[in-house]
Design goal:
By secondary structure, this protein is α+β, with helices and mostly antiparallel strands. It is built from 16 helices and 21 strands.
């Protein structure tokens, strides 16, 4: 088989698959502006191929040699004069068995996005078709893809008075060895120099997420929603534990990590019965994946990070697919792309556990290889799925137990029993000690103890310091 025949066979095989977001069919081309808009849509997306001489139904009427001359001239004009900025495209003429030809016009993924047509319209691919950009968010994302703009630079409506003074003061002292500026003018100048505030005097998104006292009051969509479901499927109203985590990124990270760890099994693994068990999956796995979700998610998408825990897996679902030309295979090898450079720079200063760009996914896989990653470009989501293993001799630790959906504060018999047994064996245990032993948060333990006291199953004897717990039979 000759080289030309091989190309033709590859072409026909591609045509048989039909049109999609990277392949489009045209019987012929007569309008230069229409062709320019198609080129701009491909360049603003991921690039693709326009097959001229192919009908929508996949039949191949082809082109005459006269058509080839005319259309190639039209392609040249469209790419150089009717798209802004001009595009460099490639064409290849492929001969059909009947002697007619097909032009394969390849448009690259643009490096100077966004591209406009002659009328100033920005086009995007929408499956096999194209559509106009119709929102500021989509336009910002195009600038983000071309590294001309980043979401964490976005100005907010929050002034610098929204800064958490203690949190910002401690960071300045610990990292820069600086005192907290007394005057608002000095504070603003410092925040601007640190890329946390705009020239107009407002906090940008990075400033809000990192140091605002209550970021959720300013950007309520940027929180983590966590749910522990019974079984392996999502339920509308049935769950074991649920909580929304808000606040500065450090607080969101710590609370999200604590939620995961309290809902994992603890394994004795040959240790003594009185020794604390080890989590079924190393904590470092979730450290890396949660940091990755918080600093690399797409903040142009107004949606929460979702954390779902099932019996057989844990899912961390981040808004935004992998940026630019990154693929799951590439991130597994340690490749990365900075979507939010201000956040990354501050996290690297110690605000979150961070071991270098691109290393998080690799470190998680080294600790626990059974992790799948799904890059949903249509749904604009990235999911990390950590698979759990059936563990013999393990104890499942749960937070607030099964609920009908409105509240996660009800106590299950199993959790109540764990608390009562622990306090009967060690009546002087403090709430933080009890929380650590059970893999729960102190707030969760306080809720459980309050209910046990109301139910007449537990009482406190003596003062808070020096007293003890008494389990009532």
């Amino acid at each position: 088989m000759g080289k030309g025949e091989m190309k033709r066979d590859d072409l026909l095989a591609g045509i048989a698959l039909g049109e999609d977001s990277s392949r489009q069919f045209k019987v012929t081309v007569k309008n230069v502006d229409s062709l320019a808009s198609e080129m701009a849509a491909f360049a603003n997306s991921e690039g693709g191929t326009i097959l001229i001489g192919v009908a929508d139904d996949g039949s191949t009427p082809g082109l005459s040699r006269e058509d080839i001359v005319r259309i190639n001239q039209l392609i040249s004009n469209a790419a150089s004069q009717h798209v802004r900025s001009p595009l460099t495209v490639q064409t290849e003429n492929i001969q059909l068995p009947n002697g007619r030809l097909i032009i394969a016009l390849t448009v690259p993924n643009g490096v100077d996005k966004p591209y406009f047509d002659k009328n100033g319209v920005i086009w995007l691919k929408n499956g096999a078709d194209k559509r106009r950009i119709n929102s500021k968010e989509e336009l910002r994302r195009l600038f983000q893809l071309s590294d001309q703009f980043h979401a964490d630079e976005l100005p907010t409506k929050a002034g610098i008075e929204k800064i958490d003074k203690l949190r910002f003061r401690d960071f300045l002292r610990d990292f820069y060895k600086l005192d907290y500026p007394d005057s608002p003018a000095e504070r603003l100048r410092l925040l601007q120099n640190m890329n946390l505030a705009t020239e107009g005097g407002m906090l940008n998104l990075a400033g809000v997420l990192l140091f605002a006292e209550r970021p959720e009051w300013i950007k309520p969509q940027f929180v983590v929603k966590a749910i522990r479901y019974p079984g392996n499927e999502i339920h509308v109203s049935d769950y074991v534990d649920t909580e929304d985590f808000s606040g500065p990124l450090r607080k969101v990270f710590e609370n999200s990590l604590a939620f995961v760890m309290r809902n994992l099994h603890k394994v004795q693994g040959g240790r003594g019965v009185n020794a604390p068990g080890l989590p079924e999956i190393p904590e470092a796995v979730f450290e890396e994946l949660l940091v990755n979700a918080l600093i690399h998610r797409d903040y142009l998408v107004s949606a929460t990070i979702r954390l779902f825990i099932f019996d057989n897996r844990i899912e961390i679902i981040s808004p935004g697919h992998l940026p630019n030309n990154l693929t799951v295979e590439k991130i597994r090898t340690g490749m990365s792309n900075i979507r939010n450079p201000i956040l990354v720079s501050f996290v690297a200063k110690g605000l979150l556990p961070y071991h270098g760009l691109g290393s998080g996914i690799k470190r998680a896989l080294e600790e626990w290889p059974d992790i799948d990653f799904t890059d949903d470009r249509e749904g604009c989501l990235f999911t990390a799925t950590v698979h759990r293993k059936a563990v013999a001799g393990s104890e499942e630790l749960t937070g607030p137990p099964k609920s009908s959906g409105k509240s996660s504060g009800k106590s299950s018999g199993k959790t109540e029993e764990q608390i009562l047994i622990s306090l009967s064996e060690r009546p002087k245990m403090t709430i933080p000690e009890l929380a650590e032993a059970l893999g729960m948060t102190t707030r969760g333990v306080e809720k459980q103890i309050s209910k046990l006291r109301q139910d007449g199953l537990l009482r406190r004897v003596g003062p808070a310091k020096g007293g003890h717990w008494e389990v009532i039979e």
